[in-house]
Amino acid sequence: MNLPDHGANPNRLYERLGMAVPKRIIDFSENVHPLGPPSFVDSGWDALKDLINRYPDAEAEPFRSAAASYHGFSKEWAAAGNGAAEIFTWLARRYRNKRVLLIEPAFSEYRKTLEAEGVEIRAVQLMADTDWKLDVVEVCAALQGCSALYICNPHNPTGRLLTVEEMTTLAKACGGADCELVIDEAFIDFAGEEFSFSPHLPDFLHVILVRSMTKMYAIAGLRLGYVLAEPKLLDELTAAAAHWNVNALAAEIGTNCFKEEAYRQEVQRSAKVEREEMTAFLRSHGCIVTDSAVNFLVFRLPGDCDAEKFFTDMLQTGIVLRHTRNFAGMDGEWFRVGMKTPEGMAELRGAINAWLEAN
């Protein structure tokens, strides 16, 4: 069955499975938190909507400068993208007909965009029996002959977090192997900015850091991300980028998001509370749960429970989990859950409890 490659496609998922769509759906398959965008989006909407009838800035200002400044860089160190997904198309073009090392399971856009450019992919496979932990030594040994290593920190789909020391070891090994290091920090905001590798970029000019605005700030519909790298490398990366690739609303809203420290702290707190409660519930019911640091987790049912039946039974009740059939090594036996409202999470726990009791 060819299921959607991403979460947040519930109607398409039901269509592919030939199932009727319930009247009410709770979509746990996507990772945008439930608190909504920062309040300034509503309160300042009259001013924001005036941007609609004007062309945006060609370099996504003022967002480009704001993103760079947030990390302590001049604007030449940053470029904005139509979501992080666009940036991965730039990267794939950079590595056309070369070899790239992936850590799997991984965000499907890495492989999809790379294969479209004829990139040879070498993979290091994380394993369930080692709790999906990354073996830094194994990765370093696999770098020879690769033009780049892609690594997601925190990892998607498990939510596991690598330390700055581990990332530094990888960056040094990549430098020694003449290999660029692409770090996808789409979910680092939920763990805390202290875990970001951005302060170390000036010491490792072969490192490319990709960030997303859509998860932390709940603006997925605007499509906004950015990339940080040494200016010459960044100029090469963005040479063929589309003109006006970031719309004016996204650039303005994204700029103001960087000022929202109290909002970030509340999102982090809420996600942590719901994640820890969900983790405790699942483990108390015999499920295996990853050690996540973000606003999602993945789990496997206990014993010989039928994962496929569980997935479809949940869908019939209107509960949409993220399948893992396209995550290498997970093969549909694991399920990813994005943290939602306390009421939504309680409903999910009730549904899982009822299913386990009946099966």
Structure notes:
Helix 4 packs parallel to helix 11 and helix 5 packs across helix 6. With 359 residues, the protein is α/β, with parallel strands linked by helices. It has 14 helices and 12 strands. The chain is globular, with a radius of gyration of 20 Å. The strands form 3 sheets. A 7-stranded mixed sheet has the order 2-8-7-6-5-3-4, with helices on both faces. A 3-stranded antiparallel sheet has the order 9-10-12, covered by helices on one side. It has a two-stranded parallel ribbon with strand order 1-11. A hairpin with a 6-residue loop joins strand 9 and strand 10.
DSSP, total strands: 12
- Mean pLDDT value: 94
Label the overall shape: globular
List the secondary-structure elements in sequence, H or E. Answer: HEHHHEHEHEHEHEHEEHHHEEHEEH
Helicity range: 25-40%
Which structural category do the helix and sheet elements fall into? Answer: alpha/beta
| Radius of gyration, whole Å | 20 Å
Q: Could you describe the largest sheet, including whether it forms a barrel?
A: 7 strands, mixed
Give the N-terminus to C-terminus distance in angstroms.
24 Å
Unreliable spans are: none
- Count every helix, treating DSSP H or I runs of 4 or more residues as helices: 14
